[in-house]
Amino acid sequence: MSARLDSKYRTNALNTMGDNEIDVLVIGGGVVGAGAALDAAARGLTVTLVEARDFAAGTSSRSSKLIHGGLRYLEQLDFWLVREALKERGLLLHRLAPHLVRPVSFLLPLQHRVWERAYIGAGVALYDTIGGARALPMHRHLSHTRAMELAPALRDDAMIGAIRYFDAQVDDARHTMTIARTAAQHGATVLTRTKVTGLLRAGERVIGAHVTDVETGREYTVRARRVISATGVWTDEMNKMTGVDFPFHVRMSKGVHILVPRERLDLDTGLIMRTEKSVLFVIPWARHWIIGTTDTDWALDKNHPVASDADVQYILDRMNAVLREPLTRNDIVGTYAGLRPLLSGASADTATLSREHAVAEPVPGLFVIAGGKYTTYRVMAADVVDAAVEGLGRAAAPSVTAHLPLLGAVGYQELAADVHSVAQRAGLPVATVEHLLGRYGSGVSELFDLIAAEPELAAPLPGAGAYLGAEVVYAVTHEGALHLDDVLTRRTRISIETADRGLTAAPAVAFRMGARLGWDAATTDREITRYRERVAAELAANKAADDESANAARLVAVA
Question: End-to-end CA distance of the chain, in Å?
Answer without folding.
Answer: 33
